[in-house]
Design a protein that fits this description.
Bound molecules: zinc ion
Strand content: 5-15%
Strand order of the largest sheet: 3-4-5
Shape: extended
Number of strands: 5
Order of helices and strands: EEHEHEEH
Helix content: 25-40%
Distance between the termini: 51 Å
Structural class: alpha/beta
Radius of gyration: 20 Å
Length: about 130
């Protein structure tokens, strides 16, 4: 929370004890190994100037390197709406086909792939069944 360093560490050692009835955390909150102050998840929120982007940048670079190796990539996008369209933009801009599963906004650019107007679970089951029938 203090931003004392750009370190990111796994939360595998954090084992929260929860009072589910009261919806309360009973154990200690996670702390920064450097300053012992309160730690936060490294998750990007809107207007979040404390988010450390180095891990995301490395993952994005690895994703693009991997995609370059694919001969005929297919992206399956599930439930990404138009209010915050960054996920939709990724699939539409990437090389390869896009399968968009969305119960209310399944449309996509012409020639890019196809949309399934349904929920995510049903869409995955239909894709599974279609692949099994091939
Ligand atoms: Zn710290």
């Amino acid at each position: 929370m203090r931003g004392c360093s750009d370190a990111i560490w796994p939360a595998a050692d954090f084992a929260p004890e929860i009072d589910e009835e009261k919806c309360l955390l009973r154990s200690a909150l996670p702390v920064c190994p450097c300053c012992k102050g309160l730690a936060r998840p490294n998750i990007l929120m809107f207007g979040d100037w404390g988010w450390i982007e180095s891990r995301q940048q490395a993952q994005t670079a690895a994703l693009h390197a991997w995609l370059k190796q694919m001969k005929r990539p297919v992206i399956v996008e599930i439930g990404a709406g138009t209010t915050i369209p960054s996920v939709r933009h990724f699939g539409e801009a990437a090389r390869g086909a896009l399968i968009r599963i969305n119960p209310t906004e399944p449309g996509l650019p012409k020639g890019k792939g196809f949309g399934l107007r349904m929920g995510g679970l049903e869409g995955i089951r239909r894709l599974r069944d279609a692949l099994a029938a091939m």
